[in-house]
Design brief:
InterPro entries: T2SS_GspF_dom. The chain has 323 residues and is mainly alpha-helical. It is built from 13 helices and no strands. It is flat and about 120 Å long. The relative contact order is 0.05.
């Protein structure tokens, strides 16, 4: 091939590469105008769906037959029991009131019910254990042993209301602990947007209600207390006492310092939100790390016998065939 033919081919290759580069640059510049923004449309659909769910849930709550009250009136039977046995002083115990508040029970109704249950529960367990042991079970034991069993059942009945309340407190704290980092993120967004702490707490309680009703209830109570209490510090301290969680107490400390000294709240909320999220992740990792020791006993009891049977059975069959 002659040199005169090579030069035009190289020029053609350069021209073709330049055309491809121009076409690619043109396509890159015009691509946002040619392709529709899928992310924006998806975010709009998600926002509309979220608003539709919120409206539906609010309509469902408003359509209930009776209104929901945080304070309930005690039943006449429980009030008569408290009055007859002179248990009014126990109903005024501050530690008992705080215990019931941590479980989500407020007002005089749950307090009177709890005190009356501590009277009725051991009596009911006493009669039930006596009927079961002396009549239905017919144990061949001395009378003293049977009486001790009945008294043990009665003592368990006395502790039964306390165990129920403690179980309710544990479940409530777990629900609040899981949703608290998300609530802090929402609170941080509201504060950085310029909302006051009352408006921010009210907005967060509305948004977090579908995820954790317990936390929404506590934040709503805090908002109400901030409105009518003279000492705003007391409202934040009440939130820490009702939840009894370290993450909530640290945030309450920051809120009190911000109210007292005027320190900026956004940076502290950002740090506390990250710490609470890390704590939630470490708790999940701790539970995942605790699974292998917990699975050891079930595997020994249920998995290894089956494995041994699968391995040994063919050898046993062969030995039986040889004989």
């Amino acid at each position: 091939m002659s040199p005169e033919m090579i030069v035009p081919q190289s020029d053609m290759i350069l021209a073709f590469a330049a055309a491809i580069a121009v076409f690619a640059a043109t396509l890159l510049v015009s691509w946002p105008y040619l392709v529709r923004d899928q992310l924006g449309a998806r975010m709009a659909r998600v926002a509309s769906e979220r608003e539709r769910i919120r409206v539906r849930e609010r309509a469902r709550l408003m359509a209930q037959d009776r209104p929901i009250f945080l304070r309930r009136e005690p039943k006449k039977l429980f009030k008569d029991i408290v009055a007859r046995f002179n248990l009014a002083k126990q109903a005024e115990d501050s530690s008992l009131i705080l215990l019931l508040r941590q479980a989500g029970y407020r007002g005089q109704g749950p307090l009177v019910t709890y005190v009356a249950a501590r009277v009725l529960s051991p009596v009911g367990m006493l009669f039930a254990a006596a009927i079961y042991i002396f009549i239905l079970l017919d144990l061949q034991h001395p009378i003293a042993v049977k009486l001790m069993m009945v008294l043990a059942a009665a003592s368990f009945g006395y502790k039964l209301p306390w165990l129920f309340v403690r179980n309710r407190i544990t479940k409530r704290q777990n629900a609040i602990r899981r949703s608290w980092p998300d609530a802090l993120d929402l609170l941080l967004i509201c504060v950085e947007c310029g909302l006051g702490i009352e408006s921010a707490l009210r907005k967060v309680s509305e948004e977090i209600g579908l995820q954790c009703a317990e936390l929404a209830e506590e934040l709503s109570l805090t908002t109400a207390e901030l409105s009518y209490l003279q000492d705003r510090r007391k409202a934040f301290e009440n939130l820490a006492e009702r939840t009894d969680l370290d993450g909530v107490k640290s945030v309450v400390t920051s809120l009190i310092q911000s109210e007292k000294y005027g320190t900026p709240l956004g940076q502290s909320l950002r740090v506390l939100a990250q710490e609470n999220r890390d704590m939630r992740m470490s708790e999940a990792e701790k539970r995942a790390a605790a699974l292998p020791p917990k699975l050891t006993v079930p595997m020994i009891l249920f998995f290894l016998p089956v494995l041994f049977a699968v391995i040994i059975t063919p050898a046993v069959i062969q030995v039986m065939d040889i004989k």
